[in-house]
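Why do we care about 3D structure at all? Because function follows from shape, and shape follows, mostly, from sequence. That is the central idea of this module. The next example makes it concrete: a single protein chain, its amino acid sequence, and then its structure expressed as tokens.
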Amino acid sequence: MIDTLRQIWRARDLRNNILFVIAMLAIFRVLAHIPLPGIDQANLKAFFASNQLLGFINLFSGGGLENFSIVALGVAPYITASIIFQLLAMVVPRLEELSKEGEYGRQKINNYTRWSTVPLGILNAVGLITILRQSSRSGVAILPANMDILTYAAIVLAMTAGTMMLMWIGELITERKVGNGISLLIFAGIVAGLPSTLRNTWILLWSPSAGIDTKQVFELALFALIAVVTIYGVVYITEAQRNVPVSYAKRIRGNRMYGGVDTHLPLRVNQAGVIPIIFAISILMFPPLIAQFFAGASTPWIASSALAVSRTFQNQTFYAIFYFMLVFIFTYFYTAVIFQPMQIAENLQKQGGFIPGIRPGVPTANYLNYIINRILFAGALFLGIIAVLPLVIQRFSGVTTLAIGGTSLLIVVSVVIETVQQIQAQLVMRDYEGL
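And the structure:
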């Protein structure tokens, strides 16, 4: 460990990249504590304690929503825009062609995603303000009762601008190749909220009059055990891979012989990493958010439908099943986006490589697709189970302070693994024999 840190510090460009990422995360945390004007912070925190949906949205804002800061929306609108365009790339011919045009096509789709983040940010800001206004009507005054149109527009504009700034910071971090910028922003928000989570858990376990509740301690210990098993499972599944044997034919060029070696093609069990979890939570947040926006509609059937949607997503059984299904589906979906068997088969054929017993070209692509679908089933099933397991444990244990702990833990572990792997890859690039 010490030697690795020394290698990182000696590599000037890698050291500067890591310091830059830390500086960007520090700026993000500062922005998360700059509140918008006119907000009653005490009533806002009380309202958050009673609303699980806003707790999940706060997860993506890195705690900025709980303070109603200028980055209150976090990166949720950008993630939603990314999901939309990845789905459209599979059904819209023009976008499908762009996705196959290499770096140029990716840049165009990224530009479309950035522009789409603006209206989605405005929609999310208006929805959140509407939710807080409805709470004000119910007796909990969070926003000013006499908010004029200019103040309203200024708050919406500030929240949207905060999201765009986080998107820009995330892309700057990604360019440094020491982790995914968006994932690291979410990671920083989760870690920053850890002290308050531990404090709330301690308050739940101990009271000045009764002392420590032994029953709650046992339940918390059970939850901690599940967390350790979850960490082990995430690391195991993330590192697990199927090695497909690959042979390279011998080729003679001049007086030298090339090829004639046997190696393997590693296929990871979980190719998608933490992205399915992020996608699933984004989809889970959207219907109840829209429903709360229309809950105060003057048309009776619209208001009743919105309330029905809100009640449905507050049902823990429905929520857990839907969450599991989304994680499972998005694991397959995102793997299909990033893993291209035909392209791998073509590259192997061009380099003179082949899988023993499989013909080059289309048969190789079909074989790789068959293998990845088989191993991905185990990865998607495991990922879905550990995603909903904390909700199940919470239902039986009653430790409500760790309601989002399982999802947070999953994201933190996966992001740490991904970041460490990228740093190690850069260290390997600098480790030449004889230097």
